[in-house]
Specification:
By secondary structure, the protein is α+β, with helices and mostly antiparallel strands. Helix content is 16%, strand content 37%. It has helices at 96-107, 164-171, 190-198, 204-210, and strands at 13-19, 25-34, 42-45, 48-51, 64-68, 72-80, 110-111, 116-117, 119-124, 127-143, 149-160, 180-183, 224-227. Strands 2-1-9-10-11-6-3 form a 7-stranded antiparallel sheet, with helices on one face. A two-stranded antiparallel ribbon has the order 4-5. Strands 7-8 form a two-stranded antiparallel sheet. Strand 1 (13-19) and strand 2 (25-34) form a beta hairpin. The longest helix has 12 residues, at 96-107. It is globular.
Length: 231
């Protein structure tokens, strides 16, 4: 279950990313959204497609594997503007309309270069999901006398999106190059973790950049790090 082993509250965050022609993933931190209140539940669906064709009169056989199906992720968010939700240190309170505008910019607004909605990375504890918004439904439940919304419930659904390189790796379930999530423990260092996963401590700077670490020398126990496939 997503979460943190430390006393610090970890909140679900979403950020835009781009996939180059070579399949490399680039995170764009200028377009992001961190939830006020974590979802009460998250539905993550995976599927497998089988070839069930058989000749006329043929007895049933074991279904033949065809491909892995697209993953989906769905959950609900509560956006509050009443002031009852406590803020973290340095955080500025944002009204509901602005929160929804920021969320729309991330998951719904067209990316000018591609003329299509952008890709979104969702991260919450041990949960990491790369995809695109499939649907978004907003239910306003409380208003100011002026009619401005004070509270809203947003239903979000995402469909998985991977580069061809990542999809190829994911199809090989025994591959050591699959993306891995590792929870930092006391005594862990980034070179040590890279040596454990990649067999080479020299990848620590690449992993630090991918996880947006400002100080890779002091890893916080309980933090989850993402170790991407090797290029």
């Amino acid at each position: 279950m997503p979460g943190s082993t430390t006393s610090e509250k970890t909140r679900l965050s979403m950020v835009r990313y781009a996939i180059s022609d070579s399949g490399a993933t680039t995170i764009d931190t200028s377009v992001s959204f961190t939830v006020q209140i974590n979802p009460a539940d998250v539905k993550h669906t995976r599927g497998i497609v089988y070839d069930k064709k058989k000749a006329l009169g043929q007895a049933a056989e074991d279904p033949k594997f065809s491909s892995t199906d697209t993953e989906t992720l769905s959950f609900s968010l509560v956006l509050d503007g009443t002031g009852v939700v406590p803020l973290s240190a340095g955080e500025i309170r944002i009204d509901v309309k602005t929160q929804i505008d920021n969320l729309n910019k991330l998951v719904y607004q067209m990316v000018s270069e591609q003329h299509e909605p952008g890709h979104v990375r969702l991260l919450w504890g041990s949960l990491i999901f790369f995809g695109r918004m499939q649907s978004m439904s907003t239910h306003y439940t409380l208003f100011k006398p002026s009619g401005a919304p004070l509270r809203a419930k947003v239903e979000l659904s995402f469909v998985g999106a991977m580069s061809k390189q990542e999809a190829s790796l994911a199809s090989n379930l025994s591959s050591p190059d699959l993306t891995q999530l590792v929870e930092v423990r006391d005594g862990d260092t980034l070179p040590l973790l890279c040596n454990r996963i990649y067999g080479d401590p020299g990848y620590y700077l690449d992993v630090a950049r991918f996880n947006q670490l400002t100080d890779f020398r002091n890893l916080r126990p309980g933090r989850t790090l993402h170790f991407p496939p090797l290029e």
